[in-house]
Structure prediction request, 107 residues.
Amino acid sequence: MKFKGSNGVGSKFTKSKLIDDNKVIDEYSNTIELSSNTSPDHQESLSQYHKDGGFMQTNKERADFATDTDNLAITNRSTNASMRDYDKKVWLEKTDKMVLQIKKDLI
Prediction:
């Protein structure tokens, strides 16, 4: 599993999503982002994969899952970092609650 550098899976995946020299569409927010501000996100987290039985697979099968571009989505780095290993639905619920709390605090 290699994501770092210009020849890694993540870098190649990002390059495949370019809409011009250095911009991509964030697959979660549908906004245009500089590719340098994004990173590939595992739609099913590696942690969840492990919990669902991935730990029983061979090293090659685990590496294949980790680098499967069908399980990657381009998103803003801060969004990706905020998701951690949460299930996407759980993350969205937490995010919605945070936004509501911020709005309440501003009123």
Notes: The beta strands are 23-25, 32-34, 38-42, 72-76.
